[in-house]
Every structure is written in C-alpha cells, then in structure tokens.
Structure prediction request, 815 residues.
Amino acid sequence: MGPTEPKEKIEPREITEELKESYLDYAISVIVSRALPDVRDGLKPVHRRILYAMLEDGLKSDAKFRKSATVIGSVLGRYHPHGDIAVYDALVRMAQDFSLRYPLINGQGNFGSIDGDSAAAYRYTESRLAKIAEELLVDIEKETVDWQPNYDNTRLEPKVLPAKFPNLLVNGTMGIAVGMTTNIPPHNLAEIAEATKYLIDNPQAEIKDLVKFVPGPDFPTGGYVYNKSIAETYALGKGSVTMQAAAEIQEQRSNQFGIVITAIPYQVNKSELIIKMAELVSEKKIEGIRDIRDESDREGLRIVIELKNDSNPQKVLNFLYKHTDLQKDFHLNMLALVNGLQPQVMSLKDILSAWIKHRQEVIKKRTEFDLRKAEERAHILIGLAKALNAIDEVIAIIKKSRDRETARQNLVKQFKFSDIQANAILEMKLATLAALERQKIEDELKEKKKLIAELQFILKNPREILSLIKNDLTEMKEKYNEPRRTKIISAEVKEYREEDLIPQEDAIITLSQGNYIKRLAPDNFRTQKRGGKGIIGFELKEEDFIIQILTTKSHDNVLFFTDRGRVFQTKAYEIPEASRTAKGKSIYNFLDLSPNEQISAIISYPEAHGSAFLLMATKNGFIKKTPLDDFANIRRNGLIVIKLKKNDLLKWVKLSSGQDEIILTTALGQAIRFPEKQVRPMSRTASGVKAIKLKKQDFISGLDIIKGGDLKLKTKNLKLLVVMANGFAKQTLLKQYKTQNRAGSGIKTAKITSKTGLIIASQIIDEAEEILAISAKGQILKTRIDSIRLAGRATQGVKIMNLDSGDHLVGMITT
Prediction:
C-alpha cells in the first residue's frame, strides 16, 4: 500500500452479534414490508402497490380492461422491486372469487380455478379495479394518508390506503413471516358494517356483543361453519372453526341414492378432494361408492357420488367428512401490523377499533383538506366580488399600469388585495362583468361560506366524524349487501341457536313411501265439501305415496320410529320447508337408516313435556309403554325402543300420561278399549305384552289415546273416527265402546266390505273441526268433520272422497 492510498477501515466484530443483527434486519423487512397486512387497510405492501398503480393508470371499474402485463410493469417500475411472478400471483388472487369474499380486481381471461389450475400468463389476461377496490382508494388525493419515497426515490407511494371499510376482516388474509403467521378468514361486509357501527355507539362493547352481528366467517365458497367457541376465538384473536361442505343425499334413480356436493370448504382444492375420495374407494377404505363425477360448470360447483344399492348413504357421508377435506378446520391467527410497524395478535374488537381510529384520522385530514381548499376559493371569490363592486376603478388602475406586475402591485396597494386575489382579478375574463356572471360569484361565495362552516363544525366535534364513519358504513352495506354464503351452525351458544331465529308456528310434516320428507304450513290446503275430488298435494313418482302425516310446532322435538324398532330424533325446523307440490328431501339426509328400514311412526313433543310415556303398538297386536325421559339422549345412529318378535313390525307410537285409556282398531273392523294401567312401564329393550287377540289375516290399523281428564267428564261427547281405504269414513260415539280387559278379541267397529276397503286409520274426535285425508297418489281432501255423520259401530259409513281407479287412502290427520 502506497503512502498516499487511504487505509481500509476494517472493524473486527463477534460473528454471533453480526448474524443476530443481520437476521433481525431481514426479519423486520419481511414482517413489515412483505408478509403481514396493515390492520388499517388489510393489505400487504404488494397488494397496496398494485391497487394504487392501477388507480394512477386510470384502470377504474368503468375503464377498459388492460393487459395484466402492463399493470405488472407499472408496479415493478414504480414501486415494487421484486419478481414479476410474485406481483402477478398477488394480482391473480385479488381477482379470484373463490379466494376473496369481495374480489378487488375484475379479471378477464383465465385467472385460475378452484381445482388449483394456474392463471394464464400475464400477457394473455386483462384486468382493472373492481368497484369495491375504489372504496379503499377513495379520497387518497386529499392528503388523507402518509406517504413515503419509493425504492429509487423518484416518486411517493402511500404507506396505507384510506380504506372506507374494514378490509382486513371483510376479505381476510394469510401470510408467513419470520417466526410468525397470520390467517384471517373473510367475513360478510354487511355484518362487519353493523358490528362496527355498534362499536362506534358503544365503545365499551364486549366480544359477546359483537358476535351478535358477526356470528362467524363468511367464506366465498359457502358451505357450513360450526362456531361453537367463536366468541372465545374472536376474543383471543386465535382459535379454530370447523368448516363443512354442503352435501345432500338425493335419490338418483328408483331406490338408488347418491350424495351431491354443492359447496366445499374454503381453500380446499376440488380436484385433490376428488382424487382423495377416489383413493379411499380404490384402497377399499370406504365401501358403498359406485362412482364419483365432477359435474361442475359455470352455474356452480357440483360433485356427484353414486352409491351402491346396499350402502347406507349417511354412513358414507359421515366417513367422507371424517377422512377427507369435506370437513376441515380453519385455524384463525389474527395477526396484523399496528401503526404500520408492530405485529400484534388482535381480537375482533381490536381490529375494528384500529380501523375506526384510522378512519377518524382519514376523515379529519380530508375535512382539513376540503376546508383549506374552500377557504382558498372563498378568499379569491371575496376579492373578485370586491373588485366587481368597484370595477371602473379597477379597470382604470390596470389601464394606467405599465405591465402586469405593476398592475398587481397597484391593486394590492389601492384595495388591500392579497397577491392571490390580485392575480385572480388580473386573470378575470370580461364576460365576468355580465350581471348573471356576477351573481354566480356571489352565489358561489355563499355556498363556500356555508361549506366552511360545516367543515369547521366537523373538526370541532369528534362525534360528527364518527357519524360520518357510520354513514359510510351504511352506504357500503347498501351498495355491496350480499346474503351470507356460509351457513352458521351453533348448537352450544344459546343466543346463536338457529332455533332462536325461527318463529314458533304450526307445521305439517309428511313422509312418503319413497322416504321423502317435507314441512309445510297447514294453510296450504283449502277446505272442501265431503265427497270432493281433493287437490293435488304432492308431486310424487307413480310408485310413491304418502305414509306418515304429523301436525306439530316448528320448535318441537320430532321422534322417528322405524318398523325395525329404532328411534331417531331431530327438530321440526330442521326438516326443510317446501311447497305443497314439492317432492321434499330424502330422509337419508337426516337419519342414519339402513337400506331395508322404514319409518313407521312420527311423534313430536315440546322441550317442557312433563311426565309422559311412549305407548307403542306392533302390527301383530303387541303393546308396550316406556317413559319418554328414557329417550332424552338419542345417538345419531338411533336407539332401540322395542325388541320385536319374528315377522312383527313396530307400526304405532303415541304419547300418554300414564292415566289414560287405549283404543285400538284392526284392519278387518274390530276394536278394543282398555285402561292404560293394564300396561306396566317397561325398559327400552322389552318386547311388550299382547293388546288384542287377532283373527287370521287381521292386523292393527289404528291406535289412539283417551286422555285421563276426558274419562269422567267428556267420554259421552267423544267420538271415534274411522277411515277406510276406498274413501269411506264414519263417526261413532265412544260410549258405544265398552271398556274391556287387555288381550281380548274386542268388538265390531265397522262393517268392512270390498266397497269400503280395509280400515287404514282411526282417531278420537273431540274438538277437532277438520279432517285432512291423503291418497296413495297424492290427492288431498280437507273437509269438516261435522259433515261426516254419526253412525253405529257395525255400519260402513259415508264416502268422503272420490278416488281414481287404483287409488286408495293411506292416511289422515285432524285439525
């Protein structure tokens, strides 16, 4: 080294300290400048730069589409000195309607699919801002946010966007930084808006108050979410929710069922999901699947799983939920940058509060900007108005001046104008001297003074700023209000139970021989005169017919008893409501039935039922009584309610008090009446005792209860209504049926002939006014009971319904 050359500055340093410092610098750069979103606008730097660059290029929602390559070039050249693929991937995700609940970019071309297909190259696709993205950028030109130099210090870029809505929660985000991750699900904009407005009005609100408005995420792919502990999750800022596909068991062909999937959990790859299901079939880990088809098209997602004839549809679906991504947990970790620098796990309230604070600052700065501009304009207008009032003198001064600068100085000196006012006067056109033009200046000045007063009032009153934020949220809700796509299921939290959102009302539940069930309102049927033709009640296949009808309340528990002696339970409102002519839904969507098992009886009871028994009768004449409380906890795969003897079937189930009387009718016209006390309470697995001695070829056709309170007071007014297969019916006073001992042969209750057909139903009548009779081919007749005349026990009754050839009655209810 020569004497004139500078000495190198080399400082020895401990390597561990150097590595710590360098890695910390790298980590901070990744956290702040790349991987984590800002809580205020919900965007990472790359997304913010894409949106702002598109705004600069005029690519608004009403502009023509432009090649994505142009957008990528603008972003790279001005703001984001990284790889083009990283920028394009971010742009593509903002355009995908299965990734963002409210896409921020309108894309034209191939932007990928839910199957995991990649987007076309950016030279092929076109893009522009979505309308909702403009709401994130609105007022950015009014000095509402802070700015920073870009990477080469040639221009400024926004540190954050004004963000007219809480985008972090509305669209969610995910990112992996150094030593930390964020995973925030999307939500419904209308729900977030209402929760934010509530928080503005109630700053001390707790999470339990906010979740009344935001019961859970709203994923763009729909499906279901189980939010059992959502309040705790939102309070901690971390936790998980279970997502489930929207799947329904449907009949594909006669007695052949399939599973149709119309929505899958968020971020699940549809192609990989189908491959996984196919692998389970090929590896024989799941039985019962014949074929899997993807029938998705531009109308929506649809995966059809064909099942084998002997398969149990509900068991297959449950297996798929357990072993595939048809059911999946979404792990929330609501981590975001606070003040643009500090990563922090935030609760739902923290995020909304941070956004409200940001909007307060934005609106304050916007108001100050508008006020400054209004005052500047008012200042000029005051000068113009003053000049017009002395226009002759002003013109004379200008004419005498040597040049423009001298004229300006003279005007300032003579009239005490400011330099700005003097320049505005010198630039004033002669047309301004016209009377109407002078009036326009005066009107504009009044308007500006009024605006200045309003803006000053806003700045002096913080509540006005909060009111403006609420108005913005209301506007956003009205402009972008979409119904929730993801259905929330919350069984544990009382205030969020689906039951609380459903009115308590009367309902009729029907079940067909083909196992289709539906719920409908009783007023679907008009009353007709006896002997009428009836109205079409159900759109059924030719070989299908109605076998069960139940009147209930929408909040009641419904018990389904099978002919094999099992019971299942559901809520009445969980059975889908349908129109009078709709087919309904397959019962396999609700109950885990075996292929050869049929529903034989349906009863309902309210939550507060008191002391009660289930009274059961079999086709071959056995009867059994079991406390209703024994069925409080019914497993999904059902409970055994009776041990059936060979070739017998459970056919009738009624609720009783323990102090009632029982009356049974048989198909061939016999009846028996005996006290309920002659049937002792038995365990669920007991077989029961004989109720009536049946003749050959005969079987039980009806079971009803004579309530204990009616035995002494009302028996003389009670009647037994008997309905026969060929449309005949009759009423007989109950006092004509003497009380006997159980297990006797009974007495005659109707004259059965080929004309009347067998007895298909019987019921005690007291205050009921109408009968609803349904035939096997779906004809329905609603008529008054008093139009059916009283008759003796051994009569055939009157015809109440004219039936088509080959048709017959299968059931009836009274109201």
Observations:
- Residues 348-389 form the longest helix (42 residues).
- Confidence is low (pLDDT under 50) at residues 492-498, 533-540.
- The radius of gyration is 39 Å.
